[in-house]
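Please study the protein below:
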Amino acid sequence: MLLRDINLRYAALKLIRDAVEDAMKAEKAEHLEALEASAEESGAKSWNVTLGGEKVAAVTLAQRAGGPKVVDEDALAEHLEAARPDMVETVKRLKPWAAKEILASIVDATEDGGVTKDGEIVPGIVMVEAGAPYQSLRWDAKTDGKDVVADAIRSGALRDLLADTGLPMLEQR
């Protein structure tokens, strides 16, 4: 491919990416607001996304969990070397399952670290607040949801639905 073609391809993809990013910023906030309102009204936290009566994806209103978090793995590993050597792989290196098990045992935190159910103070752990709600979309694998939606976009079937998004390739002329 010639450099002029590579440059044009790059410019076109950047135009698409920038337009999609701008559209998603506005859409994401509006979408989240609609999901939260629907969840409050109906109690639902998950909704199917359909196209032509066929499920193509699912949208879930999720929330980042709060709770204990390892912030100093070295301090935790040093503590566990003495208290629970079976959780330490090498010097100051936790075994992959160890942090998860320790975090599951944490019920509180102090300045000195996490507090386990047994009252043990485990250094290197703090409590974090739960995050703000967010939306999560999972494509339906049974129906190849991504492909179904991509085909609908290519065919123009979603042109009216997407016309006001600011995406130049979808605006009606």
Observations:
- Residues 3-42 form the longest helix (40 residues).
- The first strand starts at residue 46 and ends at 51.
- The chain has five helices and ten strands.
